[in-house]
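Appendix C reproduces, verbatim, an entry submitted by the partner laboratory led by Prof. M.T., so that reviewers can inspect both the input and the predicted structure.
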Amino acid sequence: MMIRKVILDQLAEITGVDAIIKNPDQELFKSGLLDSFGIIQLFVAIQEELNIEIAPTEVTREEWETPNKIISYLEKRVGQ
């Protein structure tokens, strides 16, 4: 699915870690791969590439702890 590819590609670029693509259950914040600046970059990429606008106050770190959780959140949101 397009959302999955965009999110995994963007996370790999933002974090500099290609292993995210192979392990989409990797904890992004606890492992230090994603910080506040990185999440803002991701919000911008989601808006630009998927045309989905997300406010930083809309989601919690727990909801977006892994790539799979981010993908699931976005797929549910698009399905609404």
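The first helix runs from residue 2 to 15. Additional entries are available on request from the coordinating office.
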